[in-house]
Write a structure and sequence with these properties.
heterodimer, A: about 525 residues, Helix Hairpins, 3 domains, 12 helices, B: alpha/beta, Arc Repressor Mutant, subunit A, 4-stranded antiparallel sheet, 8 helices, about 20% strand
Chain lengths: ~525, ~220
């Protein structure tokens, strides 16, 4: 695994690997060719001397046997046995053995001489070769193994001749030469070639690795610096040495980093300006608006003393200032999100308690229109209670506004990683297409209806931003005439990814398709 | 007659506040600059101060600090921005409560003022005890080892609330409703800041408090000692 990963990830290792692989192929080709040329040469040399030697030996045996037939039996025996008096092959020394076999011919009465030197097994001379020699007029040779009766095997060459002795008959005469010395030379040559080849490949690998490193290490540095840069450390720069391609890369990279930093700081500046603007507008608008509202309140509280038209105007004035105020604070909240100036203040809160409190606040009347379904144990989440209360208040107020005199159910549930609140109403509902647009700013499902009900048109988009700020989710399900369900899911601790929310956005009583 | 000092740089807002408070039966002193406020405070000795955080002359936070050095008078800070840092700065300097200007509605404002001004009825002359602290509910003073420790009215109420029911764990929301008179959820850091201030005054070692104990994840209770 490690090597595979390394191969995949490192250009240097990959290129070096390819080079080594190719070198192995080329060097083994050259090595094999060299080896066969050398061994062929050595073998031919040995063969030539062996053939000459065999010819000489055959001639001398021919002469000896010819002479021997005119001698006394004892002398003949001595002469024939002398033929086989060949110094034994010692160790792997290059040696030579002889073998003599009579060729059975009709009418010959003379004793047939046969013999083989130094415990050599007659099986050393293949029978097929003997058959060829018997019918041949010329000297023949073949590779064979010198098998000894004591179990030794030596590679060698057998050279065969026919010895014709007039009146006595024909003999097959074989001279066997050991190739053990050549074998050793071959072994030495191939060993040398192996060692040289391996050393060569190792050197090629090492050199290419070093050379490639020279190229890849600046690339790797550049990659590391780019990673750090993208992680937000805008002061990272590449080292530029010399004037080669790598340094050109470095220069271009550094220029990019500078441009990036300038752009980011420009944007940061803009964002800071925006934040200050928001805060200034807030202060500048709030004070006159507060004065306006307090004054309107004074007028409003004494409206009974006015004539009806003025009294009604006082009411309208007061209500519209309220609305203006709500709109202003929602707008400021939205621009705080846009400027990314919204700060999360996390604390451990009991979601059930927060829901109860919010319900009491939104719907303090005795009429029980809201039913809360919560686990008996408290449901703790790390959350910003102000923001979550705002989200809940918004969802519950919306549900009350759209419930059409039906009840509202609030479900609270949790699992290992997250906790959720679902607000379900059975009122007007909305189409699935509207579900996607609900969270857009100032979007209203039914403009005429919304005007009567009030609200800023920003509530759900702020709620969505609040949920996102918690890395949570706010989802909506709706069906015309069957009501709607909003589900707020919050991670229990910051940084947890929500995989399966405790409550599905589609209500359980609606999950089956309607037939 | 109860006198309220209003420190607000916006003349019109100050004036309308004056009208509202007058209508509610309070006497009002209007001050427009931070650097004039201390002098007026010393000469008029108001029962409550309602002041803006942003003031010309002397900044509101600094003004609170100066007043706190000589008086335990209830102080309600008002802020236009409602940013957390503004609220905390005022509270840490010694304000008892704060109002974001968007909450500036007559009933809300009057309710806040009323809570700060109320004196708890003292049905029992029995002094309360919490550790080595003796709380005299009649004289409205507390004693530690024979020495009187000055507390703001709000700090006193907070301590009494905890001491009256030793062993009970108060959630921050419960304290907000009991001591500050909030009827619905508000910023619970209001409680945290005041508990810290109270500890700094009465604990032997405020870093390791044993008179007012934090119950993790729930709230606070009076220590068992």
């Amino acid at each position: 695994m490690f090597t595979v990963a390394r191969w995949r990830q490192s250009l240097a290792w990959r290129v070096t690997g390819s080079i080594v692989l190719l070198s192995i192929m080329i060097i083994s080709l050259i090595g094999t060719a060299l080896n066969s040329r050398l061994t062929d040469g050595i073998f031919k040399e040995k063969l030539n001397t062996s053939l000459a030697d065999a010819r000489d030996t055959t001639q001398s045996v021919d002469i000896q046997l010819t002479i021997a037939q005119y001698q006394s039996a004892a002398v003949t025996k001595k002469m024939v046995s002398d033929i086989f008096q060949v110094p034994p092959t010692v160790g792997d020394q290059s040696g030579r053995e002889v073998a003599l076999f009579p060729i059975q011919t009709a009418g010959s009465s003379e004793p047939n001489y046969r013999g083989i030197s130094n415990l050599l097994s007659p099986a050393s001379i293949p029978t097929s070769f003997r058959a060829k020699v018997r019918t041949s007029k010329v000297q023949l040779w073949q590779r064979t193994n010198l098998d000894y009766l004591n179990g030794r095997h030596i590679p060698g060459i057998v050279v065969g001749n026919i010895v014709r002795i007039p009146t006595v008959g024909n003999y097959e005469f074989y001279v066997l030469f050991s190739l053990s010395e050549q074998r050793q030379t071959f072994a030495l040559i191939s060993q040398t070639l192996w060692v040289a080849g391996a050393a060569l490949i190792f050197m090629v690998g090492l050199i290419s690795l070093l050379v490639i490193r020279q190229i890849t290490s600046p690339i790797r540095d550049a990659a590391q610096i780019a990673e750090r840069l993208s992680a937000g450390d805008l002061d990272q720069r590449m080292q530029v040495l010399g004037e080669n391609e790598i340094s050109r890369l470095g220069i271009a990279f550094n220029e990019m980093a500078v441009a990036l930093k300038q752009q980011i700081s420009r944007l940061e500046n803009l964002s800071r300006l925006q934040q200050r603007f928001v805060s200034d507008v807030s202060h500048e608008l709030r004070t006159p608006l507060t004065t306006l509202r307090m004054a309107a309140q004074v007028i409003y509280s004494s409206r009974t003393k006015f004539e009806p038209a003025v009294a009604r105007s006082a009411e309208l004035l007061f209500a519209q200032i309220e609305r203006f105020e709500a709109l202003l604070s929602d707008l400021l909240e939205v621009s705080r999100f846009d400027a990314e100036a919204a700060v999360l203040e996390l604390e451990e809160i009991d979601l059930t308690a927060l829901v109860n409190r919010t319900v009491d606040y939104v719907n303090p009347s005795q009429e029980r229109i809201i039913t809360i379904h919560a686990p008996t144990e408290p449901v703790f989440v790390a959350a910003d209670s102000r923001r979550i209360e705002r989200v809940l208040r918004n969802l519950i107020t919306n549900a009350i506004d759209h419930r059409e005199d039906k009840g509202i159910d609030i479900y609270i549930a949790e699992n290992e990683e997250s906790a959720a609140v679902a607000v379900r109403d059975y009122g007007v509902g909305f189409t699935p297409r509207d579900a996607q647009r609900l969270f857009e700013r100032f979007w209203r499902a039914d403009p005429s209806r919304a005007r009567v009900r009030g609200g800023t048109g920003l509530g759900l988009s702020i709620a969505m931003e609040d949920a996102k700020l918690h890395q949570g989710r706010l989802e909506a399900w709706g069906s015309l005439g069957r009501g709607s369900q909003f589900v707020l899911t919050l991670p229990k601790r910051a940084g947890i990814d929500i995989s399966t929310p405790p409550i599905d956005v589609i209500p359980t009583d609606e999950s089956r398709p309607i037939i | 007659m109860t006198l309220i000092m209003v420190v607000e740089d916006d003349h019109d807002l100050a004036e309308v506040l004056g009208i509202v408070l007058n209508n509610a039966g309070y006497e009002v002193d209007l001050v427009n600059r931070g650097d004039e406020a201390l002098e007026v405070f010393r000469s008029q000795n108001p029962d409550l101060i309602l002041m803006d955080v942003m003031l010309p002359g002397v900044d509101g936070v600094e003004l609170v600090r100066q007043i706190r050095q000589e008086s335990m008078v209830p102080i309600i800070m008002t802020t236009a921005r409602g940013e957390t840092s503004d609220k905390l700065a005022g509270l840490e300097a010694g304000a008892d409560d704060y109002l974001v200007k968007s909450q500036y509605q007559e009933p809300e404002l009057l309710a806040r003022i009323k809570v700060q001004l109320r004196r708890r009825p003292t049905p029992t002359a029995e002094p309360l005890k919490i550790g080595s602290i003796l709380i005299d509910q009649v004289a409205h003073t507390i004693n530690r080892d024979g020495k009187v420790i000055p507390l703001t009215r709000l700090e006193f109420d907070l301590l009494v609330a905890l001491a009256k029911d030793p062993g009970r764990v108060f959630t921050r929301e419960a304290l907000l409703s009991e001591v500050w008179g909030y009827q619905h959820a508000a910023d619970t850091r209001l409680v945290n800041v005041h508990i810290q201030r109270l500890r700094a005054k009465i604990e032997y070692d405020p870093e390791n408090p044993d008179l007012i104990v934090t119950v993790r994840g729930v709230g606070y209770k009076a220590g068992q000692s």
